[in-house]
Amino acid sequence: MADYINVTSLNRLAKRVLEQCDPLNDLIVCGEISGFTRHYKSGHLYFTLKDENASIKTVMFRSQAQLLNFEPQNGMLVLVYGRATIYERDGAFQLYADYMKPFGAGAAQMAFDALYKKLEAEGYLARTSGADLRSKRVALTEKGEQFARAWIDRVPEAEAAALCAMPEAERAAFVRGLHSFCRLLEERLRESKAI
Fold it and tell me: For 46-70, what is each residue's pLDDT tens digit?
C-alpha cells in the first residue's frame, strides 16, 4: 500500500496537474449566467456558468470585472475567456474568468437597449407614459427628429460599418434590431408631420 497524503496535498497536486494542461489555461466557454453575485467589499464576481447538461462555478476578480462594458445578469448568455483549475482550499473545480462578453441575440438586444437609453439621456427621445419600443409609444424631441432624419439617410453606411466589426453570430439579430429601429423612427417622423 502506498503512503498516504493529506487533503491539502491532494488538492495542490490536482491543481498543479490542471495548470500544466494547456487546453484548460486558454478557454472560451459559452454558457448562461446563474446565481450571479458581485461581492460588496472585494468587487469580485461570483456566478455559475451553465448549459443544458452541466455547470461550473466561475469567478472574475475585481481587476477584470472593472473592464466589463456591460452589467452581467442571471439568464444572460455569455462567452467567458479564462482558465479552469481547482480552488485549492475547497477542492472545487472552477473557471477563473479574465474577460466576458454577451453572446448571440442577447448581445444585440443589449446594444439596442444601450442605444435607446443613451438617446433618451441625451435628449433625443422624450420620456412618455409607458414609453416602450415594442409598443411603438416613443416620442422624439425636436433634436431627436433632426437626428433621426440624418441617421436614416446614412443607415446603409452605418450598418455596413457596424456589421464589419461584429461577430457573424450576432449580425442577423443586430440587423433585425437596426431595421426595426429605423422603421420606428420613420413611422414616428411621419406621425409628427401629420399632426
Answer: 999 998 899 999 999 999 999 998 8
CA atoms of 107 and 94, how far apart (whole Å): 25
Assign 111 to helix, strand or coil.
helix
List of residues 6+ apart from 10 with CB closer than 8 A: 91
Residue 103: the pLDDT is: 84
For residue 27, the cross-strand partners are 82
Contact 138, 184 (CB under 8 A): yes
Burial zone of 82 (CB within 10 Å; 0-12 exposed, 13-18 middle, 19+ buried):
buried
Q: How far apart (Å, rounded) are the C-alpha atoms in residues 32 and 47?
A: 10
Element of type H or E holding 165 = helix 142-165
Rounded to whole angstroms, how far apart are CA atoms 18 and 6? Answer: 19
Q: Is 174 exposed, middle or buried (0-12, 13-18, 19+ CB in 10 A)?
A: buried
How far is residue 109 CA from its own chain's centroid? 9
55 and 48 Cβ atoms separated by less than 8 Å = yes
Q: Are 139 and 148 in contact (CB under 8 A)?
A: no
